[in-house]
Amino acid sequence: HNLRVLKPIAGATYNKLSAPPAGQVSAALSFMEMFLEGNDLAIWINGLLDDLDWGEEGSNRFEAAMHALGNYLGFGSQRPEVTSGLGPDNLWALGGLKYLVIECKSGAVSADKISKGDTNQLNGSTIWFSKKYDQECTMTPIMVHPKTSFEHAASPHPELRIVNRPGLQKLRDAVQAYSVALAAAGGFKDAREVERQL
User: Fold this and answer.
1) Cβ contacts of residue 24 below 8 Å, gap of 6+?
2) How many of the other CB atoms lie within 10 Å of CB of 81?
3) What is the pTM of this model?
4) Which end of the chain is more exposed for a tag (fewer CB within 10 A), N or C?
């Protein structure tokens, strides 16, 4: 049951990710069933946002926080590299056969530019996606990196999007505002309120 402990010699079988069949709002509500009251949600989101920050020491925590954030927002969310040994750090299924292939470089705080190695890792994850998912599925490659310029030798994917320092702060602020709104008066238990806040 814990794919991070042991893997067969031939490798683990990858299970494709799909968006929650009942929809984003229903999936978000199901995820938030673990919170008994608004204070529980507020405490949990503060911990998640602490992990969703730059730093050389916390890259695994950052990737785990991205995974949890995908579920919290009602998307399908996976960590293929952890579970099967191949693929991106994070994969989100948004619905409508649309996916985000996410590579997290939260530890690259001392880098001057995005390295060729980091770029090649994301390019490899996009190739992995095209092998695992059929042509009807579309993906957007996302790199979470404090910088937005590339080393001369790097060859970024033409559709690459970067979540840089200001972008990550915007995401954190939006998630915080969403959570505060839902924690107030038990809105996290109300489908209409969750839909409105999403």
Assistant:
1) 73, 74, 75, 95, 198
2) 18
3) 0.92
4) N
